[in-house]
Amino acid sequence: MKLLLFSLSKALTASNGLSHAIAQLAHMLTEGGHSVSLVCTDTGGQPFFPFPGALRVYNLGLSYKRDKLVKLRVLFARTLEERHRIKYYGYGRKLAPGLAEIIDEEKPDLIICYQIRSALIIKKILSLPVPVILSCHRCPDEIAADNRGLAVAEACDALHVLTQGQAKSIQEKIEGVQRVFVIGNAVSYREEARPGCGSRRIISVGRVTPEKDYLLLINAFHELADEFPDWTIDIWGDTAQSKAYYRACMNRIKRYGLEDRIIFKGVTRNVFEALQSASILAMPSPAEAFPLVLLEGMSAGLPSVGLASCTGVNELITKENGILTEKAPKAYAKGLSRLMRDRALREKMGERARETVAQHSPEACKKRWEELLASLVHDRRQ
Prior knowledge:
The chain has helices at 17-31, 68-75, 80-106, 116-125, 140-147, 152-155, 164-173, 214-224, 243-256, 271-276, 292-299, 313-316, 329-340, 343-357, 362-381, and strands spanning 2-7, 35-40, 56-59, 110-113, 132-135, 158-161, 179-182, 201-205, 232-236, 262-266, 280-283, 304-307, 322-325. It is an alpha/beta fold.
């Protein structure tokens, strides 16, 4: 089967979860004997995650975002819905001719799109008959907001979501969507992991932006700093995406006098090694789709502390493998302190966390993807 992955993002050079998931799927599909191509918008450079050597890559670049007319019209949009319509159609029409040439050359049997705006080009602007899967890697509220007034999700042949909760929420928020398939991200079970390590280090991984809410983690740790003077936090992630937020975090750390105990470590290509150096994984994000880093932390044998209200996180963390708290510094601090003061509890939850990972093996995910692809191609031939 010839498959085309289409993402309007820096799918190659970015260090985020979406890029990781795209790289994973590309490997699964090529190993399954499929012919796979990737279309993305990138700045060029070496891929951050390893992609299969057989993958054909088409980089549309980022010059389409320089359209001053589209930017001006977006500036005067009265609503978020109007802003999305102007931006997605405006930029989409600039990309459509080049994309049409790629599709004519590749002649894919099926296209997997990773954003509402990428599926819009295929379904609404080019009106191609090729089956399209919309692969949803954002929380349901964001997907529904992007789709409002555009009806792109409803036009796709199937939606791929990452959790049962996400599936239910999207079906409630977007009436008329066709089939919804639940396939989580894959993480390998790590035999070499050493659950329950005795270090006094908390780790958190993700880009340093407001969406990850590191200020909640910083404020919570401030509540505990005197009680646990030998504990520290390592935060791994890109600090350049929101420089203002990074400065806000650093200012808060300095105000609390915690410069030598809360360290921003930058970007790493070896997340598992970083995870192995810690005893607790902190997930302060208020919204996630299906965070790969949480599964990777579980594979490393780490118990996690997340928010009970966070989609994705609240479906992976259970009372056996971690702690869910309310979104408040004192509540989050209480969750962290339970693990910080009790190594035996960390070891017990860490072992349960590793067992959770077995449900998300690459083999299981590959099987579900093959079933999804086969069903769509079969329906097309009827």
